[in-house]
Amino acid sequence: MTRRALVNALLVLAVVALFAVPLLLNGGSSEYGGTDAAVTEELEADGYTPWFDSLFSPTGEVESGLFALQAALGGGVLGYVLGRLRGRRTNPAAAAGADER
């Protein structure tokens, strides 16, 4: 095993540990609530009333699906841009030809 492969394996293990250790120590008994819900509860307790209601309130499953779609589209755009930038750097002649069109 090369040094580079060992470093990569250790980094992957460290990232997995960052997520797994807190869950294992807690035993899965904690409820993770979002900050949006906490702030909404605080504001409603203070007597705040919203100016307007949402036009579209999806159910939980649809909301999760829309969020996943948004994340996938963002990842696709980011991957495309990074790929184009890397392609320009590794093959400047092809990039110059593509820009002239």
Describe the oligomeric state of these chains in a short phrase.
Answer: single chain
Spell the H/E element sequence.
HHHH
Q: Estimate what percentage of residues fall within beta strands.
A: under 5%
The end-to-end distance, rounded to whole angstroms, is 46 Å
| SS-derived structural category | mainly alpha
Q: What Rg, in angstroms, do the CA atoms define?
A: 23 Å
Mean pLDDT equals: 85
Shape: flat
Determine the number of helices (DSSP H or I, runs of at least 4 residues).
4
Helix content: over 70%
Number of strands: 0
Unreliable spans are none
Give a quick account of the main beta sheet: strands, pairing sense, barrel closure.
Answer: none
Based on the model shown, name its key terms.
mainly alpha; 101 residues; 74% helix
List strands and helices in order, with pairings.
Blueprint: H1 3-26, H2 35-45, H3 60-90, H4 92-100
Helix pairs in contact: 3-4
Structure notes:
- The structure is a single chain.
- The model has no long low-confidence stretch (mean pLDDT 85).
- α3 packs across α4.
- It is flat and about 60 Å long.
- It is built from 4 helices and no strands.
- It has helices at 3-26, 35-45, 60-90, 92-100.
- The chain is mainly alpha-helical and 101 residues long.
- The longest helix is centred in the C-terminal third of the chain and has 31 residues, at 60-90.
